[in-house]
Each structure stands twice: as C-alpha cells, then as structure tokens.
Write a structure and sequence with these properties.
4-stranded antiparallel beta sheet, 63 residues, DUF397, DUF397 domain-containing protein, single chain, alpha+beta
Length: 63
C-alpha cells in the first residue's frame, strides 16, 4: 500500500510527554492508516473507513 501521500496527525489520545504516540492518516481514499510516531518508517495498519469508525466508536469522548 502506498502511503507516501498520507497526511499524518497525532491522535488526541496520545501521551503528551512524547511517548506512546499514535498517528492517523485519514486523507487517503478508502483507507485510514495508523502508525507509531516513534517509528514513522516502520509498519502501518490500514483500516477501511467503516472499520476505523467501529474501532474508535467505543472510545469516542462523551459530553
């Protein structure tokens, strides 16, 4: 999978002291990619948008 055009952003749930950071790229058609910010050249997980929504739904902040 080509992720060269991925626009990575740090998860709002990431640790603020620089560790335990997850980055998400949701700007690619038909895929949401997730990677470890400490290893940007390492592997990334790829989800369909529907699978990503299902994954984060139980963890969405409540108001």
């Amino acid at each position: 999978m080509d992720l060269t055009r991925a626009a990575w952003r740090k998860s709002s749930r990431s640790n603020s002291n620089g560790g335990a950071c997850v980055e998400v790229a949701d700007n690619l058609p038909g895929v949401v990619a997730v990677r470890d910010s400490k290893d940007p050249a390492g592997p990334a997980l790829a989800f369909t948008p529907a699978a990503w929504r299902a994954f984060i739904a139980p963890h969405a902040p409540t108001r």
